[in-house]
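Subject: Protein record for review, amino acid sequence with backbone structure tokens
Why sent: The fold of this protein is of interest and is recorded here as tokens.
Enclosed: The protein record, placed directly beneath this head.
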Amino acid sequence: MPRKSATKVTPDQIKKLEQQLAKAQQDLRYARHLEQKQARATDARRKIVAGALALEHMEKNPGSEFGKILFRLLDEYTRPHERHLFAFLPVRDTPAPPSETAPHIEAAE
């Protein structure tokens, strides 16, 4: 790339270039923020769709191996304050040890 001819650079030109650079950096940060926001939204949507499909399968096929495993996982790992989201889970104040969840798997059949 050929060099520009040697011309005198004024402080105003430098200030203008610095302002353009700052604006471009700000625009780049905002574009990256929007990209991350879209990625999070896409990931959340993917999880919602997958979860809905899994719950629908468990509801239609409660005796399936998948249904039993999903029930056990939800029963073991759902936080106490979120258990109300899954009406089929037994109400419990404290998390049950894994040995106590086995009887609930049979109930899903």
